[in-house]
Amino acid sequence: MHVLAEADLRLDAQAIDYVLLAFYFLLVLGIGYLARRQVSTSLDFFLSGRSLPAWVTGLAFVAANLGAIEVMGMSANGAQYGMPTAHYFWIGAVPAMLFLGIVMMPFYYGSKVRSVPEFMLRRFGKPAHLVNGISFALAQILIAGANLYLLALVVNLLLGWPIWVSVILAAVIVLAYTALGGLSAAIYNEVLQFFVIVAALLPLTIVGLAKVGGWQGLVDKVSAGPGGPEQLDSWPGNQLTGFGSNFLSVLGIVFGLGFVLSFGYWTTNFVEVQRAMASKSMSAARRTPIIGAIPKMLVPFIVIIPGMVAGVTVTELAGDNKAALLAGESAPSGATFNDALLLLMRDLLPNGMLGIAIAGLLASFMAGMAANLSSFNTVFTYDIWQTYVVKDRPDGYYLRAGRVVTALATLLAIGTAFIAASYANLMDYLQQLFSFFNAPLFATFILGMFWKRMTPTAGWTGLVSGTAAAVGVFLLAETGVWDLPGQGASFVGAGAAFVVDIAVSVAVTYATQPKPEAQLVGLVYSLTPKENLKHSTTGEDAGWYRRPGLLAGIVLVVTILFNIIF
């Protein structure tokens, strides 16, 4: 793990910054305490009693994904690759979020399942359910560890405390409010954290652009520096994918990232879907990811641009240091791209503003980790513990079990934080995890949802073989057998997982018996009555601005324009 010389990176925080931070922490814990008063059943704890309005769940939807990895990882990518990083938003998020709202949410919300693995249980039976439950739980612990490591890094830089002390302190605060108030506490805190994150990053972007002489100044400096003008156009993104050919690079971004990784993440990742399931109506559930897509398409401007500014203005990351890092070597300064945002804050922000910025960073880390914990405790309690270990107990037992599981998950995340510490760019690590866990799940899911013949045996064999394919690509890239620089290994791994999963599922389906059609109503598109997929358009769901289809169309047009302009 790199540690910069203390003097270089210690953020010069003053009393006002610490007061702002202390106030923020009290507010977060207060929300957890107030939310606890609404928790009397396990449905309240795990799914907020399905009572929240669409604008709350929509902001929580995007904030749950605006964790440390998103904020620090995307600014690290901005410093390393420049504008091609926007693909993670405009290709790798928004289209899939719209698809989730229009096509998938009616299935999730209408079938009243409590988790994505529960959908797998009803569609494919217990083996596929167990495989999915275990792989999802493992992914959440690994990702929570990455969020926790970054949170600890900031506390270490701020207070000078050792990383291990910072990891434990950060974990205790998130555990406190998630265990107190369950999903409601996590969601209300995510809405607060969304505004705190924007309040921290928007001024940083504006001051950063002013320092380099506006957008044109940034263009000139990036063009003249290591990485060159390629970093200013999002297409074809060769540096990001690691492919020499423009055609292969665009194919990797559109198919690997835009289809497999992004649809796999947004449509089957329970961290996100759980927020929409907490909505008060089918219409609100469908609007949740579409409302979330509006800030999502604007986020690149406040995370990627500061990273690009850091890459040309921060001494430890610019010039020879950047050239060394781009060549895969250690920078003479000891910094890595993960430090981009912190170093920029150190250079640009006055006291008071620094306190808000640090609170914003801590908010993003806690939002990400709380999202991981709240989805882990739901899946583990309902899908593993209640289904296979301790069955048929009163509801109060599972509510208590959920709180205990949250504490155990926090301890495990402290362990996995040290795996994340070994990566110079955490986005590489994260995309790798998504190729293992999300890409095969998406293949199984989408095939099972639209193909009624697919059998229960095909469900779990496809999942296992798809995951094995992604791990195989990862091992080939790690051992140097296959040279895939950048984030190419995760794009290729995701594509391999998807293709292998589909091929195995189709082959196994024709060799095994399908479920009777009567058992698939509400779980397969062609067998679901159309009225089950409709939502109300009266009362709180009335008005043109609450029509999911129209909202999705507007967001899609704006996203296409961004892709053309940049």
TrEMBL record:
The keyword Disulfide bond does not apply. GO terms for cellular component: plasma membrane. It is a multi-pass membrane protein. GO terms for molecular function: D-glucose:sodium symporter activity. The chain crosses the membrane at residues 15-35, 55-76, 88-109, 130-155, 161-180, 192-210, 247-268, 289-312, 353-380, 401-423, 429-451, 458-477, 489-511, 549-565. It holds the Pfam family SSF. InterPro entries: Na/Glc_symporter_sf (IPR038377), Na/solute_symporter (IPR001734), Na/solute_symporter_CS (IPR018212). It is found in: Membrane. PROSITE patterns: NA_SOLUT_SYMP_1, NA_SOLUT_SYMP_3. Keywords: Membrane, Transmembrane, Transmembrane helix. Belongs to the sodium:solute symporter (SSF) (TC 2.A.21) family. This is SSS sodium solute transporter.
